[in-house]
Design goal:
CATH class: Mainly Beta
Number of domains: 1
CATH topology: OB fold (Dihydrolipoamide Acetyltransferase, E2P)
CATH superfamily: EutN/Ccml
Distance between the termini: 24 Å
Oligomer: single chain
């Protein structure tokens, strides 16, 4: 699982019927600078990704997401999916490792 921040939603003109009940969100991955507050914009310089969300995450929410084959686990058949939200984060505490 990786932490990320929802920075937008995605509207599709057509989608696979298996995705009923959820929606698509744009996620900015959260690295050390975002987790410690050093990056005040909250938007990572890393590439953002689109993920399927059936948790109800909104813009500004912090989430945990998974990518790859693990993203298909909630479904009973193979589905064209590469990322999915798995948790909404209420609070977290992050201390960068000391060297």
């Amino acid at each position: 699982m990786k932490p990320g921040k929802v920075i937008g939603t995605v509207t599709l003109g057509h989608r696979d019927p298996s995705f009923r009940g959820g929606r698509w969100v744009m996620i900015s991955p959260m690295g050390g600078d975002e987790l410690t507050g050093k990056n005040t914009s909250g938007v990572s310089p890393q590439f953002s990704l689109v993920a399927y969300d059936d948790l109800g995450a909104g813009v500004g929410d912090e989430v945990l997401y998974v990518e790859g084959a693990e993203a298909m686990q909630p479904f009973d058949r193979p589905i064209p999916l590469d990322a999915i939200t798995v948790a909404l984060i209420d609070t977290y505490k992050y201390e960068p490792p000391t060297q």
